[in-house]
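Below is a filled-in request sheet from our internal design queue. Each sheet records the structural input a requester submitted and the sequence that came back. We keep these sheets so that new team members can see what a complete request looks like end to end.

REQUESTER: design group, bay 2
PRIORITY: normal
MODE: inverse folding
CHAIN LENGTH: 139
BACKBONE (tokenized):
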């Protein structure tokens, strides 16, 4: 039950932030390192849109594909690892985005990322089978 609830919260948060990437593309451009445009041959707006689309797709997958739940968890964790360089770039360049407008918040975000990876993996894991208690003997 707890895993399902945390998976829903993760999916809703991913979906919401993904949608924000579409409406506030310009605000997220500062997170994209210059080397990412060279590596992908996309401009910063396209990278922001693509990452937003990935977040929305992952959110939908976490909720709508129960048979693929474990794979979706690993894909979500991989996504969080993939965007980590952008978080480091934002912290190093001291650029603000909505909600990350102070040095402390940008720095704290770096430590949130590993927790998001663990959250994605844990919330999509199969629950451990219930332990069986030994039957009591009648006297």
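RETURNED SEQUENCE:
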């Amino acid at each position: 039950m707890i895993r399902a609830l945390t998976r829903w919260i993760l999916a809703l948060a991913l979906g919401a932030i993904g949608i924000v990437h579409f409406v506030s593309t310009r605000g997220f451009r500062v997170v994209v390192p210059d080397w990412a445009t060279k590596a992908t041959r996309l401009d910063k707006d396209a990278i922001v849109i693509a990452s937003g689309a990935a977040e929305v797709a992952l959110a939908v997958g976490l909720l709508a594909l129960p048979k693929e739940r474990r794979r979706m968890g690993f894909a979500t964790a991989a996504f969080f690892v993939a965007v980590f360089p952008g978080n480091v770039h934002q912290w190093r360049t001291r650029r603000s985005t909505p909600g990350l407008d102070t040095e402390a918040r940008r720095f704290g975000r770096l430590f949130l990322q590993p927790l998001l990876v663990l959250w994605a993996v844990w919330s999509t894991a199969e629950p451990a089978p219930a332990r069986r208690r030994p039957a009591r003997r009648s006297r």
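SHEET NOTES:
- The chain has a mean pLDDT of 89.
- The longest helix spans residues 69-93.
FILED BY: M.R.
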